[in-house]
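Technical appendix A lists one of the benchmark inputs used to test multi-chain prediction within the project. The record comprises two sequence entries:
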Amino acid sequence: MKNRKMNRRDFLRLSVAAATGAAVAACAPAAPQIVEVEKEVPVEKEVVKTVEVEKVVEKVVTPTPGPAKKPVTITLFVGFGTGNDPPQIPMQEAMASSFHELYPYITVEYMRVPCEESRVKWATMYAAGTPPDGTLPTGLSGINYWIEPGGEPMWVNIEPLIERDKIDISDFFETSIKGATHPLTGELIGMPVGLYCNFLAYNKNIFDKAGIPYPTHNWDDKSWTYQKLLELAQELTIDKNGKRANQVGFDPDNIVQFGLDGWEEWTYGRAWGGEPFSEDVCKVTVNTPEWIEGLQFLQDLRYKYHVMPTPAQTGPLTALFWDPFGSGQVAMSFSWTWVVGEILVEIKDWGWDVAALPWGPKAQAAGLCIDCGTITAKSPHVDEVWEYFKYISKPGNSERLAIDGWGCLPPRKSGMELFDALRVPGIDTKGFGEALARGRPTEYWRPELGKTYETWDAIYDALRLGKKTAAECSAELQKELQKLFDEYWAKHPGFCS
Amino acid sequence: MISRSPFMGMSRARRREALFAYLFISPWLLGFIIWEVGPMIASLVLSLTKYNITSPPIFVGLANYKRAFTEDPLFWHSLKVTATYAAFAIPLGLILGFTVALLLNFDIPGVSIWRTVYYLPSVISGVAVAILWQFIFQPQFGILNTLLKMVGLKGPEWLYSTTWVLPAFIIMSLWGIGGGMVIYLAGLQGIPTALYESAQIDGANWWQQLWKITLPMMTPTIFFNLVMGLIGTFQIFTSAYVMTQGGPMYASLFYNLYLYNNAFVFFEMGYASMLAWALLAIILILTLLTIKSSAAWVYYEGELRRR
């Protein structure tokens, strides 16, 4: 065949033809694939590479055969928290694939957005009228940022769906259901898919070297108090001259090993019996003596006793891992369970374990973060998203996705058994369950959530940097936040008396 | 009156050429109208509303403007932080950029390499630079405090100190002097050598040549860099967003960061839009004042001035 040079007209013709072809292909409906068979699907396989896991087989009842349904693609937003780490993705995709086998007309697509860009992305898509069909997962603050009493609802209340489909949620941790329930409307706006809690980790090597017994694993031991924790931390905080924090001549500017880390305002405040907001979120209560005493103890750990690194001292400890405990130069740390998957499983040079949380004057407190799946109220595919949420919430699937897909603790109580059995060898993982039982959410809804966070951080910065006492900071915060709350509730009458 | 087509009177070839010109600029023009002018108009309209994304905008007139100027202490605080930063960063950047350009205008060995070395930092992405400077300012192991320690000084806590965080950003701003330096270099090389030759014949030393020839001849370039610096420093955002998020205790809450917080943390889009327009007005006023002042200190070659 004779070669012919393509002229401009030919090129244009070809371009138009290609564009038309692409448009036709894109608009054409996909061939319906309805396969309705009853089969057994293996829903559990080896969850963590380091341990052997019993294969759990769940009998899956396929949807009742009915008229052929139109193929639907649901888009789930991943970005308000966990879910974007590369090792987490295969499990999420595997879950979506196994779901698609059962529901061939529903295809699940994940829209992955880096966490720091997620709010902007979501807000922009929502404002443009094209939000994803749901989020999976999102922390409570991810949900609560968008809630305004009397405003246009962003999330579907899933309670009627749970009732309609007779889903038993009694196996879910009560705190997770309560946390995902809106405090004003009482609507359940998120399906818990994973949990995180505070726990006390300790470095076994540091204790062994110091010849000091490990902190107790007995959660009922009420002699294990914050005062004891401080004494232990003082013994284990060492300066460059080898002096301990409780010795004369200790140099707080040149510490080579810290006894404790983990600046957890809520945990300390609650252990002393405080709570920053009233249950109806109408009142700010950071000026109570309990809250202030708890926070003052926390600040003293850093600036009076020098057993906890200051923000400036934290830098060198985070050279390898973002959490100072990963440096191996911190004896104990109030950590969060996400640190387990992201850091602690990587530690090979030294051993660590989970101790019981110490008792404060009033309680043994732990913070709790809840990750949920939510359905966007504007989504045209509410039922399809709900179908997927039901699927991933089934026993077996729920644990599998929580542990390997999101890197968190399972939302079901029964799932903790599996977690205990498999997570990290040699670790007293029952401590996580104990901490969960004592956990209370920190990210629940309150008026002007963004401003509350911002004001909280700006004012408590002075506490964190040792510039002001807990009483001074809390008085200032009380004034600022209560003003914010009062102005907010004045615009939304009927909620607060 | 009969309106004339812009193509009327043109030859066919000229018409064709003009048509192609419009065709070729249309991607930019359309992009500018759709993605720049459109959002600007939208933000102007939104600045008169209360809009939280989840509900439709509610018209509130000038309430957002009133709130900023009379009720919002953080508006004034962020403006003060930004103005303080600009008051130091702009002159320092101008002086250092000019000084480096003067030095690199000498015929020294490897001058091209030096010019490249000084220019390179200004083309590195803002986030990467911010992370780099976080390490430099780290109080325990940062290079800055290590150097200070070597001369017997205890370095401050920089980004963790309400006193030192702003000076830290001002020091960091000098990282970008390479951009201005290149413009200064171009200006320096545009000064006619005849001026220096006649000055030398008259016995002027280097210092006198600098004051009497170089500086006056460079005033248009300095003026350009001043205006660009003014616009740039008032828009500082990335470094503060990455390094401090406005802390500690709002000490580095720059105006644009506050604007971002209002838009994407508090979801007050109407108020954030108002802040954007207020910033435009502030920069515009300052630029106009600078242009107005230029008559007194900017000298253009060939310009005749009345005494």
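The CA atoms of residues 239 and 255 of chain A lie 4 Å apart. The longest helix of chain A spans residues 470-491. Comparable benchmark entries are summarised in Table A2.
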